[in-house]
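Forum: Protein Structure Q&A
Topic: Joint prediction for protein chains with partners

I've read a bunch of threads here and the consensus seems to be that you should model interacting components together rather than docking separate models afterwards. I'd like to see that in practice. Below is the full input, 625 residues plus whatever partners are listed. Could one of the regulars post the assembled result?
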Amino acid sequence: MSMTLTEKILAKASGRTHVDAGETVWVNVDVLMTHDVCGPPTIGIFKREFGEDAKVWDKDKVVIIPDHYIFTNDKYANRNVDILRAFSAEQGLPHFYDVGTERYKGVCHVAMPEEGFTRPGDVLFGTDSHTCTAGAFGQFATGIGNTDAGFILGTGKLWVKVPETMKFIFEGEIPPYIMAKDLILQIIGDIGVDGATYRAMEFAGDGVMNMDMEGRMTLTNMVIEAGGKNGVVEPDEVTFDYVRQRTDYEFTPFYNDPDAKYHSVRKYKSAELEPMVAKPHSPDNKATVREVINSPLNRAYIGSCTGGKITDFEAAAKIMKGQQVKMDTFVVPATTLVRDQLKTTTYDGETLWDIFLNAGAHMGEASCAACLGGPSDTFGRLQGEEICISTTNRNFPGRMGSKKSSVYLASPYTVAASAIAGKIADPRDYLPEEKVSATV
Amino acid sequence: MSKKITGKVFVVGNDIDTDQIIPAEHLVYSLDDPEERRYYGRYALSGVPEAQSGLPKGNIPFTPQDQFESEFKVIIGGKNFGCGSSREHAPFALQVAGAEAVIATGYARIFYRNAVDGGFIIPFESEEDLVKEFTTGDEVEIDRDNSVLNNLTSGKSYPLKKLGDVVKIVEAGGIFKYAEKNGMI
Ligand code: SF4
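Posted by a regular:
Agreed with the consensus. Here's the joint model:
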């Protein structure tokens, strides 16, 4: 019987030869990830249920990455990191990335691949809805709540319902002014914020397979914005190269059977794609940039797990080099590695860091920062009636801090062009033809 | 767990995401400390824009901001209730505020799992969109045995979908109690 890639991973993890979409199965977990917001309550549940002296089921499989509320004076937020620190010490956890140390990383979904935890064929659960990002590596990865995570900490197992798969195929070369973010905003706009609820979303076609890992991660990151359970891209040499450079863990990649059953298949012609935005206040409120061009803005934000990777900044730098921003523009690298790369990667003879600084942007520390608002002293947080254009993934009311503000979601190209224009701008008007395809 | 849930309804719209259920800035309080956990009740549904809070009139806070508990036992929403982040603080906050059930035409997956596995609140689904059918403050009764929602104020009844697979976990009171009962832990 034929299976999809997601079905095969879940079959392996549940010790079966075959599973069907719709079945509920108990799976063995390869990695459990948590962070500073959901880690403390998860630990609380684990201790309440398994006892004060209980040990986690497998220390090597637990990854704790504080990233949400890091650079704040909020005493409760700081206490959360203290709880993670104490628990990691007590349990002797090798994969804890403590704040204020050399090991500190920043945004978990970008740090996970950097550290080799996103591996084809494995099962990853995380107490964060964007855990689905890791599906870019051909892993089954999805977000769960604290109770489920507490349960895994004690047992290494969890029940899941095997999802049906919706397939999205991009045919042909992606135009140089289009980024992965435009593809996913197009899809979410087409199917709606609940268009993939309970399902897997697979991204395929040469348009996708020609992307590097970071582009693929931008796609899988936002499947949750369509309600999806997990996102997935079939692993290939690009995947294997990336993973093998970061871990020597043995993994087993899976692929769709040629006659695997899908919930639906949608095809897009890459050449027809347009730069997209999601208008306030929902990720499915789609418009092409051309439809909203010149709309007023007074803030730009480049960062987060979906829009704060090094390739996102390389893109933004192509447009911002030698220019001045016309509104408050915040640049937040997802991780400390990305921050370091900003200082070493150059475009046209200047480091990305200097390009942004000289353009007048505010440079932040690696973390989630204002992507989800956070305590009132959070870097870049919206406090009033700002109209912001952002490379992040959610623009629900209040998401970036103020219920009165409005947020547009867009690609790093579109956000950078808008920062320079002071209003919504089309990257095609700001990307000089010869630079569009120049490698950084 | 009683088979009937009775009380007043609080009506909201479609796509109520977890930032509206409990805004991110309030996620810092302890879930165990009795003094602090009350704040989850105070701020439950405080992220819903005022005009959509307590439909059809709006401008009704779920929990008055000088209190920690809500007078509403049942929340009625449209589609995709609980979308957004994976924060379990969301169904937890509704429970701390005193709510016992949500009725919506559909849920975001993680919210649904959290509500059930944590034993916080029962997520019922209805085929029909009930947002326009109810006024915040109506007295209702949910009859779980027969999967029916009765509006005691208007006298009308509405079918609810059967809870299905998850009923065993709901009845056990969450995933831990379920696993214990079945000898898994
Ligand atoms: S960057 Fe934003 S979306 Fe990503 S994990 Fe942090 S808060 Fe969540």
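The longest helix of chain A spans residues 75-91.
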